[in-house]
Design a protein that fits this description.
298 residues; alpha/beta; Rossmann fold; Tumour Suppressor Smad4; 39% strand; elongated
């Protein structure tokens, strides 16, 4: 059987909360997967921080940029947070990613550890489904000048400060005024992010094939301020009218402190992330499994 991939990068979950090093058990998992890849005839490299924190030797170490240039597949071992981080960095290179779930929910890292031998080998030989997810481009403007910009796969969130009251936000879509909102914050989520923070704030789930976004207010002062689904071809602008210590976050990993009058612009990025799933993968199977729908049913 002909291999579809030749140089594979291993990216591990190394942000262990207590120590900042590789998560317990991850080294053994990574070593096992690396050996499996070598047995299949693949060249293997470790993402540089994964290599530094795991202590695994015998394989080359590459930065995300080097992975994008040199590798034809990224294998992510961790949770969705690990996948979000590397996905944003590799999107511009078009490097496909396979996710092995070592986290909890795992909406985009969908291969259980125990299924790796039986699932990964066929995928290396071309037996997979491809799933492309569009990224969001977020930018913070201050007095007309850009002071911060970042990509997001899940969401762009404007949040109040930890000890302050509500924020007042002016929302525009394609230059058209939508509403002034007083709330704890506001979420602009992609279909991928619709099952993350936006879902916990009461937003709807969007199928990944829908070219849209959802705007979800966080604990709004007026209960008639409801989530709304919008096409992703335009521009959403959020202006901080009032509120202290507010911030804008991009996938909860990049953070910008906001001043009154700052405008957060959200547009569709030109880049998308390429996920590869096992043959027969279905989005509804993922929802049913992760959200425990119809437990006990046939």
């Amino acid at each position: 059987m002909t291999r579809s991939f030749h140089h594979v990068a291993l990216i591990g979950k190394y942000h262990h909360a207590a120590t900042g090093t590789v998560a317990p058990g991850s080294r053994e998992v990574l070593e096992h997967i690396a050996a499996l890849l070598v047995k299949q005839g693949c060249s293997v490299s470790l993402e540089s921080q994964t290599a530094d924190n795991s202590g695994i030797s015998g394989y080359g170490a590459l930065t995300p940029e080097e992975i994008g240039v040199q590798c034809d597949l990224g294998l992510v071992v961790g949770g969705d947070g690990t996948m979000l981080s590397i996905g944003r960095k590799l999107a511009r290179f078009g490097t496909p990613l396979i996710g092995i779930n070592q986290g909890r929910l795992g909406f985009v890292t969908d291969i259980p550890l125990e299924d790796v031998p039986s699932t990964l080998v066929p995928m290396l030989h071309g037996d997979f489904e491809e799933d492309r997810r569009q990224l969001m481009q977020g930018k913070v403007l201050r007095k007309g000048a850009s002071v911060f910009d970042a990509l997001a796969m899940n969401d762009v969130v404007v949040n109040r400060g930890a000890t302050s009251g509500m924020v007042e936000l002016r929302v525009e879509v394609d230059g058209h005024f939508v509403a002034n909102q007083r709330a704890d914050g506001l979420i602009v989520a992609s279909p991928t992010g619709s099952t993350a923070y936006a879902l916990s704030a009461g937003g709807p789930m969007l199928h990944p094939s829908i070219p849209g976004w959802v705007i979800v207010p966080i604990a709004p002062h007026t209960l008639s301020n409801r989530p709304i689904v919008l096409p992703d071809g335009g521009e959403i602008a959020i202006e901080l009218v009032n509120g202290r210590d507010a911030s804008a976050s991009f996938d909860m990993q990049s953070l910008a402190k906001l001043h009154r009058g700052d405008r957060i612009l959200v547009r569709r990025s030109e880049h998308c992330v390429r996920f590869l799933h096992p043959r027969g993968w279905n989005y509804f199977d993922t929802l049913r499994r992760k959200l425990r729908w119809n437990e006990g049913g046939s």
